[in-house]
Every structure is written in structure tokens, then in C-alpha cells.
Amino acid sequence: MATTASGDLRPWLGGDFRATLDGLGIPACISDRRGVVRWQNPRSLEVFGRKVGRPLLETVALESRRAVGDSLAKKLLGAEASSDYDSVLRGRNGQRVPVTIHSVALRDRGRVVGSLAVIETHDALPAGPAPRVTPRQLEILRLLADGCSTDQIAKRLHLSVETVRNHVRSLLRRMRVHSRLAAVAEGRRLGLIG
After folding, report:
1. Distance from C-alpha of 168 to C-alpha of 171, rounded to nearest angstrom
2. Could you tell me if 62 and 144 lie in one domain?
3. What is the pLDDT along the chain (194 residues), one digit of tens a residue?
4. What's the Cα-to-Cα distance from 1 to each of 31, 91, 126, rounded to whole Å?
5. What does the pLDDT read at residue 108?
6. What CATH number does the domain containing 42 carry?
7. Same structural domain, 92 and 140
8. Spatial CA neighbour of 150 closest among 168, 138, 133
9. Exposed, middle or buried: residue 185 (CB in 10 Å: 0-12, 13-18, 19+)?
């Protein structure tokens, strides 16, 4: 963990970085090449509960798992050295916690061995559970947010136009809104989409 492209930092700085990372006032964790959490600082334990030995993605809200998983995979494959992105994680008591994740690949002798994530928490989302949307509804909501029409969504998802309309109607009902624009706005407010 303490090596960089320019060499081992411990002799140069003369210290152990774990104590420094433990002292951070914001959550931080390290995951290994398999995406398993291997270390959390005290603030991470306080906000998210004990996750050491468990898959990192267990802490991630369902709608954010793809983005977090993709970012982690890019680091582990060496395609991305660092990243900063917004996400929604699950807190210690299951509450949704909007965050910005700042992560970097950890290398040992040039080989990626894991990832360090420093997690900037934001104000909590409004009280009450977010509407439960199906994975397909979430996919359609994302396409609506991208400005896709019903026909475009049907083509992208290989569905009939009527099936897309049915999914949109169900999505609007579930989110308790009356228009596609309102669904996108509500999805953003709830952290379902970026």
C-alpha cells in the first residue's frame, strides 16, 4: 500500500500510514482485488457499520452498484488509476447515504493489489423509503434522463413500444408523479439516477 511509482514512501516519510488513515475525519476503506473490504477507518465503521471481510458492493445502494462495480473493475484491470464520482451507499442502519467517492488503485511493485476509497458524505436524503423500482424501470428511468423517446427506448432495450409505455406508466405510478420529466426530477432527488 505504501508504494508508488517513485518508490516506497515509508522510509522517506518515516511512518506508518494506517494511523494517518485511521485519523481521517471522513469514511475511508480499502478493498482487495476481489472487491472484498480489508480495512475501514473508524469514521467508516461509524457511518456504514463493520464491512471488513464482506464484498464492497454490499454497502452500495442497488441503483449505484453498476457504476461502483465498473469503477472498481477499471482500477483492478489497470485501465483507471483514480476516479471521483457520486453514488448512494447504505448506511449502518440501512438508510440511504448520498456520497462522492474518491478512489485510487493501490499498487505493489507495479501490480494493482486493491483500491483505496475516501467517501465524502452529503446531506441525508429525505426521510422515508425511496420508491422501489424494478431493475427494468430503473433502466428506463435512466434512458428518460438521457432524453430518449419511447421509440428510442424500445430500440435500445429490444422491447415493443407498448411494453415501454407500460413500464413508463408503472414507473410514474410507483414514483407518485404524473410526467416523465417529474419522474426524472424525482429520480435525481432520490439519488436513483445521477
Report:
1. 5
2. no
3. 443 333 444 554 455 666 777 777 889 999 998 999 999 999 899 889 999 999 999 999 888 888 888 888 888 888 888 988 888 898 888 888 888 999 999 888 888 888 999 999 876 544 445 567 888 888 999 999 999 999 999 999 999 999 999 999 999 888 888 889 888 888 888 778 87
4. 11, 26, 38
5. 87
6. 3.30.450.20
7. no
8. 168
9. middle
- The answer to whether residues 16 and 23 touch, using CB atoms and an 8 Å cutoff, is no
Q: Which residues does 131 contact at the CB level (< 8 Å), separation at least 6?
A: 174, 175, 176, 190
73 and 8 inside one domain: yes
Q: Which domain covers residue 7, as residue numbers?
A: 3-121
> How far apart, in whole angstroms, are the C-alpha atoms of residue 18 and residue 40?
10
Question: pTM above the 0.90 mark?
Answer: no
Alpha-helical runs (H) found in the chain: 9-13, 17-22, 42-48, 65-76, 135-145, 150-157, 161-175, 180-189
Rounded CA separation 10/80 (Å): 25
Given a contact cutoff of 8 angstroms between Cβ atoms, the answer to whether 88 and 64 are in contact is yes
Written as nine digits, the cell of 38 is: 480489508
Q: What is the pLDDT of residue 147?
A: 92
Do 170 and 102 share a structural domain?
no
- Among 121, 150, 172, give the residue marking a domain's end: 121
Q: Among candidates 47, 63, 59, which has minimal Cα distance to 191?
A: 63
CA distance 98 to 121: 6
